[in-house]
Amino acid sequence: MVMYSPGRTTSYPSEPIEKGFRFHFLGGGDEVGNVGCILEDETGTKLLLDYGMAPTDPPRYPNESPNIENCILTHSHIDHIGMAPWLSSNYGTLLHCTGLTKMIVEPMWHDCYKVSRIEGYPLAWDKRDLDEALVNLRPHSFNEEIKLLDWKWRFLRAGHIPGAAMTYIETPKKKILFSGDFDTRDCELVSGAKTVDCDILFIEGTYANRNHPKKEEEQQRFLDRVLEVVERNGTCLVPAFANGRTQDVLMLLHRTNPQLNVHIDGMGKRLVKMYLEHNEYLRDKDALTAALSWAKKVGSKSDKKKALNADVIITTSGMLNGGPSIWYLNRLRNDLRNAILLTGYQAEGTGGRMLLEKKQVPIFGNISPINLEVDQYSFSTHAGQKELIEFVEGCNPKDVIIYHTNSAEARPSLEKILSEKGFTVHCPKNGETYHIID
Ligand SMILES: [Zn+2]
Fold it and tell me: N or C: fewer beta carbons within 10 Å in the chain?
């Protein structure tokens, strides 16, 4: 159990920097998710980028943050914002984010709190902390210039999910870009990120060693399977994350197969309304509006029963870890005409991973065999290796820091490629301090 006691256990050095620039990952340096990174230079100006947790089983938390006045939340996924209520309520830290992220963090934190109760894992913050953090949120638009002592910084579009931002910082000596989770490819919801000239580039390396299949081909493989299941009078259960994937899949189905009968359930229904309230972050707000009014929104128990006859049900949890997807799976699992189409990565210890490895899933406390057809699709909105290399070349920095990555398998491959191209590559570990001196 991790219970922080402020000022005692942080790994961040307390002495100021004599010269240059330093960075220190409290989390997310050599792992995926769980991000928290402190940047500081010789002027004493500093920023924390993200303060998340990894909702794995058991969850992982970043090292304790020192007292810090300003934190940027790059986007509203829980592995980037999960510990921000603790931070903000303890130190009064201002939480800077885009307007849409400001809106979405509230339901995301509430959901995180609820899940921690259900799963019985410790969380270092409670509802009171959450309320205090909400007061400390500071929204900013893309390209709005914000002054912070000797620095100025702004948000740039990151792709990934609506409201996700890269952070571009100008210090007296360096131009720094912190990618956050990003993708240069367009998806249904958002347009991809663009390169920007910088000296130091922090780049997420979720897919540092892998290339994505061609997007159109992967989408077609998914749609072909949907039509095949519908043809045999089955229902496709599509477990999808609430924040991004649910809406991406919904828009894809609406754009390509408007004849289908598609129901959506779970938190994604609520988030899509927030996306539409901040539609400046969307690639095509009219397409999302149309897809949403086309879909059947499940609101009640009787709606849930009706959805059992749908062609497609899109719902949370995306990893078959509780939520409506388990309720549907329990009802659909005995009719072999039905199928499960997974749309994302299935983490260790989740129902989805168990399904892939053992053809069984915990349903309301019982490990239950699942004989339905199961398929998995790569609808990631993280840049793949090819996009990462092109992005680094486009930004043309001197120093590249690869973080948010599997340090044993994924990172070495990208490190090698970028080093051979002449970039100075840094591979940070959590809890260690690194310096860049001109
Ligand atoms: Zn993310």
Answer: N
Tell me how far the alpha carbon of residue 131 lies from the centroid of ligand 1, in angstroms: 23
In angstroms, what is the span from residue 303 Cα to ligand 1's centroid? 30
C-alpha 386 to ligand 1 mean position (Å): 19
Ligand 1 centroid–CA 304 distance in Å is: 29
Distance CA 332, CA 297 (A): 19
CA of 164 to the centre of ligand 1 (A): 8
How much is the pTM?
Answer: 0.94
How many A from CA of 431 to the centre of ligand 1?
Answer: 22
Instruction: Give 181 Cα–ligand 1 centroid separation in angstroms.
Output: 5
- From the CA of 160, how far away is ligand 1's center (Å)? 7
Q: Quote the mean pLDDT of the chain.
A: 95
Residues 343-382 pLDDT 10s: 988 988 889 999 999 999 999 989 999 999 999 999 999 9
| CA-closest candidate to residue 424, choices 401, 391, 395 | 401
- Tell me the fold of 21-210+381-436: Metallo-beta-lactamase; Chain A (3.60.15)
The CATH number that domain 215-376 falls under is 3.40.50.10890
Domain residues of the chain, as ranges?
Answer: 21-210+381-436, 215-376
Please provide residue 389's backbone torsions phi and psi, each rounded to the nearest 5 degrees: -65, -45
